[in-house]
Design goal:
By secondary structure, chain A is of the alpha+beta class. Chain A folds into three domains: about 1-30; about 35-225, no CATH class; about 285-520, Lipocalin, CATH 2.40.128. Chain A has helices at about 1-20, 75-85, 90, 105, 235-245, 285-290, 345-355, 515-525, and strands at about 40, 110-115, 120-125, 130-135, 150-160, 160-165, 185-195, 200-205, 215-225, 305, 330-335, 380-385, 390-395, 400-405, 425-430, 435-440, 460-470, 470-480, 490-500. Helix content of chain B is about 20%, strand content about 40%.
C-alpha cells in the first residue's frame, strides 16, 4: 500500500514538474527547489581574462565580468599579476593540465552537467572528467586545514538561489589565463539562480585579505546546451602526452583512427561465443525487503563505496605476492577455472607487461583514467548518485561515469562507432533489483590492472550491480573482447558501503613516480636499441 | 594520545595502506634494499602516495631522500593534520631503492629512535580474504 502510494506521489510530482517547464515557469524538483539539472556552458570570455581586455595571440578580446571593472589587488599582488600575465604561456597551471580550481572550471569553454538530489548538487565537467560535489544537507567539512585544488564546497538555498561557500583552496590555481590569482586564504561565495528554464545567472564573491584590498564580485550567464544530449570527454593530460609522444599508441589495442588500418597480425576471434549463463547472485525475499528504495521503488544505490578488490588491481587471476606486487584471490568466475581466455599473442603481451620496462606503459601510472571495469576495483573509493533518470559514479581518482537509465525496449543507440572514450558510452536499465549497464565505444587505451591484463577497443562490457544487503552491492562485469580473448569472461567483486565522503586525488599534479618508471623504460631501450619500442 | 604515539600510529598506517596507482615492482629494485637513518625534513601530503623527505648522512655527505608511502586521503580520513609528522623526527627506514638509482625508496618498515619497530609488510594494497 505504502509503495503504491509513494509511486502515485512520484507520478503526480513528475507530471507537475513536467508541467512547470512551461514558458515562464522554472523547472522544479519534487522538493520544490529550482531544478538546475541539465548540461550547461558559460557564454563568456572570462576564462581568458575576467577583466576587459584587448586581443592577444593566445586570447580573443573580451568584455570583463568584474563588477566595477577592476580587481582590487594589493600593490604587491598587482605587480605579481602583471608578472603572471607576461609569463602566462608557460606559467598558467591549466597549460600543464592541472585542476582549474573554482571558479575557473565553471567558465572554461567546456560543458558540464548538473545532477541534483535532495542533499547534493553534483557537477560533472567534460574537461578531464573533473567533478564537484556540493553538499546542500548542512554536512560540515571533515578535513579543515587541508588545501585542495578544487576547494571544499558546501551549499544551501536562499529562496530561489543556490548559495555555495567554497573554502580550503590551495594557492596554485589561477582565475583565468591572464594570471589573476589568489592565496590559500581565498573564500568564495557562489550564487546560482535560474533566470528562465535555459539561462542561469552565476555570481561569485571573492574574499582573500592576503591578496585583495576588499571583496569583489563577478557575474556571468550559463546557458543550457540544448544541442547536447550527453557529455563526452576531453582528457587534457592524455591528449598532451599522446601529442608529445610521452604516452605511446599501441596498434594492437587502440582504436584505429581515420586513415589507420587495424593490426593485420592479430585476427579477432570469429565467431565469438555468447557469454556463458551464470548462476544468479544470491538474494531472497529478506534481502529485497531490507533494501533502501527510491520514490520509484528501485533500490537506492546512492552512497559511498569501496571495492573489496581482492588484489584485482594486481591481476584478475589468482596470484601470489611478487616483491612489491600484492597477492590476489582471483576474481574471474567464468571461465570456471578462474583463468582469462587469452588469445596466445595477448597472453604473451600480458606476461611482458609485468616486466619493469613496461611499468611506464600503464595509463594509470600517468594518472590517466582507469576505464571499465577497472574503475570499479582500483583501491580507491567511489560515490554513486541516483536520480530517476541517471546513475552517476564519481571516482575519488577524479573521473566519472554517467549512466542514463533507459527502457531497454526503447533501443537507445550507443554513440557512433568512431567516437571512442576512456570510460566508454554506458546505457543502463533495471532488471528487477539489478542495475544492468551496457558499455561500448571504449578506446582500448586502458589496462585492466598494474600488471597489464589486456583490453582492446573491441571491448564490450555488460555490468550487473545487485544489492545483496543494505551495506553491499555484488558487482559483476562480463567482458567480450574478440581481439584479445577467445571467449567472454566475467569477474565478480563486492562493493562495500563506506561512511566517509570523497576527498580529492590530485594524481597528475602530484605524480612523483612517472619519471622513475620512464627512466627504467629509457634505460631498457638504450640497452636494447634493436627493440626500440620496449613493447615487443 | 601522546605525540609520539600519534606519529607511531600514523607511520603504521602509512606503511600498511599505500593505494598504488602504478607498479611498485617496476619502479623499485628488489636487489637494492636500503636501510636509512635520518631526520624528517618534510611530509608531503599527496595522492595516491604521500612522501616523507629525510636528510640522510652517508660518509659525511647529506642526501635528501624521498620515501614513498600511502595515500594522504586515507590519513586525512583518520583525522591526521598537516603537522602530524613534524620536521626533525628521527626515523630508521627499511625499503627498496628506485631502479633508476635516485635517492628514492619505497618504504617497507619504519623504526623510531626509541627502537620500536613497525613492520607492516609490503606498502601496497592488502588483499582481503574472499
Amino acid at each position: 500500500m505504502f509503495v503504491r502510494f509513494t509511486k502515485a506521489v512520484f507520478v503526480i510530482s513528475a507530471a507537475f514538474s513536467a508541467f512547470s517547464w512551461g514558458q515562464n515557469a522554472l523547472p522544479r524538483t519534487p522538493q520544490g527547489k529550482p531544478n538546475l539539472q541539465g548540461i550547461w556552458k558559460a557564454q563568456s570570455r572570462a576564462a581568458y581574462d575576467l577583466q576587459d581586455h584587448a586581443s592577444k595571440d593566445d586570447m580573443p578580446a573580451g568584455k570583463g565580468v568584474v563588477e566595477g571593472g577592476a580587481i582590487p589587488y594589493q600593490p604587491w599582488a598587482a605587480a605579481k599579476k602583471l608578472e603572471n600575465f607576461a609569463n602566462r604561456k608557460t606559467a598558467d597551471p591549466l597549460g600543464k593540465c592541472y585542476f582549474p580550481g573554482v571558479p575557473r572550471i565553471m567558465y572554461l569553454d567546456f560543458p558540464f552537467q548538473i545532477f541534483q538530489t535532495a542533499d547534493h548538487i553534483a557537477m560533472t565537467f567534460e574537461w578531464s572528467q573533473v567533478y564537484r560535489v556540493i553538499y546542500t544537507s548542512g554536512k560540515p567539512p571533515l578535513h579543515d586545514g587541508f588545501a585542495f585544488w578544487m576547494g571544499d564546497s558546501r551549499g544551501h538555498w536562499e529562496g530561489e538561489t543556490l548559495v555555495v561557500e567554497v573554502k580550503g583552496h590551495n594557492d596554485k590555481t589561477w582565475f583565468d589565463h591572464a594570471g589573476d590569482f589568489h592565496s590559500e586564504a581565498l573564500k568564495l561565495t557562489e550564487r546560482y539562480r535560474l533566470l528562465d528554464a535555459d539561462t542561469m545567472q552565476y555570481q561569485v564573491t571573492f574574499d582573500d585579505s592576503k591578496v585583495f584590498t576588499r571583496p569583489w564580485q563577478i557575474t556571468l550567464l550559463l546557458s543550457r546546451q540544448k544541442n547536447m544530449d550527453r557529455l563526452l570527454e576531453y582528457q587534457c593530460q592524455a591528449e598532451a602526452e599522446e601529442a608529445s609522444g610521452a604516452f605511446e599508441r599501441d596498434d594492437r589495442t587502440w582504436y584505429p583512427e581515420a586513415g589507420m588500418k587495424p593490426n593485420a597480425a592479430i585476427l579477432p576471434t570469429n565467431p565469438m561465443p555468447a557469454p556463458a549463463a551464470l548462476a544468479p547472485v544470491k538474494t531472497d525475499v529478506k534481502t529485497a525487503a531490507s533494501l533502501r528504495r527510491t520514490a520509484d521503488g528501485k533500490p537506492d544505490l546512492a552512497g559511498y563505496y569501496q571495492s573489496d578488490g581482492g588484489g584485482a588491481n594486481y591481476g584478475l587471476e589468482q596470484h601470489v605476492k611478487d616483491f612489491l606486487t600484492p597477492p590476489g584471490r582471483g576474481v574471474v568466475i567464468e571461465p570456471a577455472d578462474g583463468s582469462l581466455p587469452y588469445q596466445p599473442w595477448a597472453r604473451a603481451e600480458r606476461i611482458e607487461r609485468e616486466l619493469p620496462q613496461r611499468g611506464y606503459d600503464d595509463p594509470t601510472a600517468h594518472c590517466l583514467v582507469a576505464g571499465v571495469p577497472r574503475s570499479m576495483y582500483v583501491p580507491s573509493p567511489l560515490q554513486i548518485l541516483q536520480t530517476p533518470t541517471h546513475i552517476v559514479m564519481l571516482f575519488e581518482r577524479m573521473s566519472w561515469r554517467i549512466i542514463p537509465l533507459v527502457n531497454p525496449l526503447a533501443n537507445r543507440a550507443h554513440l557512433p562507432d568512431h567516437v571512442r572514450l576512456w570510460q566508454g558510452d554506458s546505457i543502463g536499465h533495471w532488471e528487477g533489483d539489478t542495475l544492468v549497464v551496457d558499455t561500448t565505444n571504449l578506446n582500448g587505451k586502458t589496462w585492466l590492472n598494474e600488471v597489464g591484463d589486456v583490453l582492446s577497443h573491441s571491448e564490450h562490457v555488460v555490468e550487473r550491480f545487485t544489492p545483496v544487503s543494505p551495506q553491499k552491492i555484488m558487482y559483476r562485469a562480463t567482458v567480450t573482447d574478440p581481439i584479445v580473448y577467445t571467449r567472454p569472461w566475467t569477474i565478480e567483486v563486492p562493493l562495500n558501503r563506506e561512511a566517509e565522503e570523497l576527498l580529492e586525488v590530485a594524481c597528475h599534479e602530484d605524480n612523483g613516480d612517472l619519471q622513475h618508471l620512464k627512466d627504467v623504460r629509457d634505460e631498457y631501450r638504450k640497452q636494447h636499441p634493436q627493440n626500440s619500442t620496449g613493447k615487443k | 594520545m601522546s605525540t609520539l604515539k600519534k606519529i607511531a600510529a600514523l607511520v603504521f598506517f602509512l606503511v600498511a595502506t599505500a593505494f598504488a596507482h602504478h607498479s611498485f615492482t617496476a619502479e623499485f629494485d628488489d636487489k637494492k634494499p636500503v636501510k636509512l637513518t635520518g631526520k624528517v625534513t618534510e611530509m608531503k601530503w599527496s595522492n595516491p602516495h604521500s612522501w616523507i623527505y629525510m636528510d640522510v648522512e652517508t660518509n659525511g655527505k647529506v642526501v635528501n631522500w624521498a620515501l614513498e608511502t600511502g595515500a594522504a586521503n586515507a590519513l586525512i580520513r583518520r583525522g591526521w593534520k598537516r603537522d602530524s609528522l613534524p620536521a626533525g623526527t628521527v626515523l630508521l627506514v627499511d625499503g627498496w631503492q628506485a631502479r633508476n638509482g635516485s635517492p628514492t625508496a619505497n618504504v617497507g618498515s619504519i623504526t623510531f629512535a626509541d627502537g620500536r619497530k613497525l613492520f607492516a609488510g609490503s606498502s601496497n594494497e592488502a588483499a582481503p580474504a574472499k
